[in-house]
């Protein structure tokens, strides 16, 4: 039996714009995405001699073939046309679910990366991303990692220069939003504020942390206006020194960017009693 291990890093959206609704019913997106240090640990045993098995220690997450990590392993072995004699996947979850942090996609991407390495890199990063797109729309970005511009449904990726190191606090309130409902709401409201994606690309290129923080923008925030927690967390982050704060993806996690790890720790301490799922993190 062989045991493989890989970190599954969460993502945040520095900008997120929802563009036109397409003929297939999906919306085109434009988002600058960033990998962060908050992560799950994924372990895989190969050749267990037993049926496929997966565990992840979270009651709300399916521990069977519906799990995105399982789907990723299935897709990988189907693609290479052979499979080991049994596989067990263990996921040690830290990334909150229904947070907009791509927790499930991160696990799937970790499985694809580690299996590709184990098999002596039969697939290029681009091929692995394409395989990941079949598992979920955030999986390609999680395979690529770093800083990237995502377009289309999120699968058209342009790798960017890595963002400068940013100290973050990520806070997940108990509320959860259904992504399709957020898209419906966005279709019915006039979007008043959109991200300036080009300015964000320039700020990233010049490594200007203050400017990056000032340009954080997610149009989904306009679909969740009225949820007390989102506003309260943003206010707390800003009151505790954040240079900027915004909801990530379709929420409900909110993050702030801080000038130092110490500032981030203080802001984290201020939120963690009310919101136990609060994490200090940084860009990776
Ligand atoms: P996104 O940012 O991609 O919208 P999210 O942060 O909202 O993701 P996830 O943690 O990816 O949410 O979970 C979304 C759903 O996927 C959950 O309902 C969960 O049951 C399911 N799921 C399947 N596999 C996993 C996994 N390995 N980890 C977490 N959730 C998983």
Describe this structure in words.
The chain is α+β, with helices and mostly antiparallel strands. It has two domains: 158 residues, Ribosomal Protein S5, domain 2; 116 residues, Alpha-Beta Plaits, CATH 3.30.70.890. Helices cover 33% and strands 28% of the residues. Strands 1, 2, 3, 4, 5, 6 and 8 form a seven-stranded mixed β-sheet that branches. Strands 9-10-7-11 form a four-stranded antiparallel β-sheet. Strand 3, helix 1 and strand 4 form a beta-alpha-beta unit. The chain starts with a strand and ends with a strand. The structure holds adenosine-5'-triphosphate. Adenosine-5'-triphosphate binds next to helix 1 and helix 2.
* Beta content: 25-35%
The CATH topology of the largest domain corresponds to Ribosomal Protein S5, domain 2
* Sheet having the most strands: 7 strands, mixed
Helix content percent band: 25-40%
Low-pLDDT sequence parts: none
Our count of helices gives 9
List the helices and strands in order.
Answer: EEEHEHHHEEEHHHEHEEHE
Bound molecules: adenosine-5'-triphosphate
List how many beta strands DSSP finds. 11
Q: What is the average of the pLDDT values?
A: 96
Count of distinct structural domains: 2
How far is the first residue's CA from the last residue's CA?
31 Å
**Would you identify the CATH architecture of the largest domain?**
2-Layer Sandwich
**What does the overall shape look like?**
globular
